[in-house]
Amino acid sequence: MALGFSGSNGGINPKSSSSIEQDFASKPLEISYFVNNTCNLTCGHCYVGYEESKNALSVEEWQNVFCDALSLGALTFGNVGKEPLLSWNKSIQLLNFLKQKRQENPKIRYGLVTNATLLTPEKISQLIEAHPTYLDISIDGTEKVHDSIRGYGNYHKSVSAIENIIRQAPEFSDKLFISFTLMGRNNRHSLIEEMIKELQNKGVKKFMISPYAPSINQSGEDIGITKEQIADTYAVLKAKANSWLKSEDQLLLKVDYDTQKPLMNLLAERRIIELNKLLTDDYATIFNQFGRVFINYIPVPRTLIRDIRISHDGFVSSCHDMFFKDYPNRARGNLRERRLSEIISS
């Protein structure tokens, strides 16, 4: 799901779009994996409630998991955290492993989601050599707003990394997505417009907005946002954002069935999502296209049907399960005890 479970996954390819097929749930698996359970930031909107940081899978164990997933038809692999750069040796080895697998099957997609504050020139060079098909970098507004959410000085660090990536490898501008979490503190379309224009000047072409999904763990002011507020903002972006975007740009407005079905239903009721105009791409992402603005739509729960989330220590679950501190009790199984095929079929 290019607009859902594990970030952008490389976005949507509208050139491959077609009408909706009925066997949506049987399409290729998407694997979202946590290479670690640590982060250098303490963002109030982080949903991960599971606190265990030990017992991480080794590179070899991850490679075996990936091979099992590939045998089940998986095509998308996203290193979604908690912060991949804190386990860089493991992260880059796994990216290079997937690079090799992509030489066997060019349809494979792989990338990572990062705040980019630790992305040094050396890491950037290694990342470029690994040829990920996408890279999501978290930016939650212009400098003042972003730093109020993620900590003073972090906007400059992340934007400097973006500039360095595009300077070293201009082709990365087609793979790099700004991942913006829409919450109470930054829910202003004027702010989104200003952020987009600032980053366009840095060479960024692609932007993704993910609405905040509340969990029991958050703290901090101005995080919460209602589904009505999200719908209002999406309606404005659908109407206005094309005037901010250049011909090669994309703005992806994301909705996730498994955590936000009421929001998705509201978007459809208000015809912000237009059900009579749905398309699907070659990875079975269902979406509306309005010029350079895309909104995804998910007709059925996807977790453990299409979307597999794997914790750093091998638990297989839904995204929502990780909101809770008792996550291992909620997970469907552990890969050190059973194979992935056995867990998802049970």
Biggest pleated-sheet summary: 13 strands, mixed
Taken from the alpha-carbon principal axes, the silhouette is globular
| Structure classification | alpha/beta
N-C termini distance:
23 Å
Helix content: 25-40%
Structure annotation, total helices: 10
Poorly predicted sequence stretches spanning 5 or more consecutive residues: 1-5
How large is the radius of gyration? 19 Å
The topology string of helices and strands comes to EHEHEHEHHEHEHEHEEEEEHEH
Report strand %.
15-25%
The strand line-up of the biggest sheet is 8-9-10-7-6-5-4-3-2-1-11-12-13
Task: Write a brief caption for the model.
By secondary structure, the chain is an alpha/beta fold. The chain is built from ten helices and 13 strands.
How does the SSE layout of this entry go?
Layout: E1 30-34, H1 59-71, E2 76-81, H2 88-104, E3 109-114, H3 121-130, E4 134-138, H4 143-150, H5 154-168, E5 176-182, H6 189-200, E6 206-211, H7 227-240, E7 250-253, H8 257-269, E8 279-280, E9 286-290, E10 293-296, E11 307-310, E12 315-317, H9 327-330, E13 333-334, H10 340-345
Parallel strand pairs: 1-2, 1-11, 2-3, 3-4, 4-5, 5-6, 6-7, 7-10
Antiparallel strand pairs: 8-9, 9-10, 11-12, 12-13
Helix pairs in contact: 1-2, 2-3, 3-5, 7-8
Outline the structure in words.
- This protein has 346 residues and is an alpha/beta fold.
- The chain contains 10 helices and 13 strands.
